[in-house]
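User: Quick sanity check before I run a bigger batch. Here is a single chain. Can you write out its predicted 3D structure?
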Amino acid sequence: MAAHPFDLSGKTALVTGANTGLGQGIAVALAAAGADIAAVGRTAPVETQAGVEALGRRFVAIDADLTSNEPIERIVAEAWDGFGAVDILVNNAGIIRRAAAIDFTEADWDAVLDVNLKTAFFLTQAVVRRMLAEDRGGKVINIASMLSFQGGMRVASYTASKSGLAGLTRLLANEWAGRGINVNAIAPGYFDTNNTEALKADPDRNRQILERIPAGRWGLPDDLGGAAVFLASAASDYVHGVVLPVDGGWLAR
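Assistant: Done. Predicted structure follows.
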């Protein structure tokens, strides 16, 4: 039994999009709690690997493009080959496209839905299939968004994908809670990442956003660590189908 309910010693986490930003913050936080990390992404996760290994945890980098389902079976195989099992899956990889709804293209719709929703579902299916076959239980953490609750503007496919991901989180929790699999999500508020560079660069939007956040600042990747550790650990064993906002109070406003 773990020394305390948040202890992830002996666990392995598979984190997509872990090379930068929120994924990097989550991977390092899980490693700090004791987990080994398998990081999936299109670019080398050099900083993430350094951070994880500095904490004394093992690290495997899996090079894969999540714009299609093609690499899913290989991702699962490499993660299991590297660590012998996966206990935690974090579906963090995501992209965004911005345009007015009247001008939104099919290409931008498909690109975002494929990464943010389709691949996330089928990777989860593949990982949980192995977890169930081994009768080991596990934790799935989807990275949702404020736009899982709200509409937003100029991000039609992103809003659709993140609303869909919240729904999938609940559906999968319903199907798997009785089989030892916890499926939950974190909904980050406005975080300082590559995806929000355009918003921060717009003085008016930046001011409007900060005025709406009770905490008075943009979130930093480290701010997600506690929520991720909670949902990955035994502390959340009776938590199923939750979309947990980490938003500086944005939704409460």
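The longest strand covers residues 181-188.

User: Great, the batch can go ahead then.
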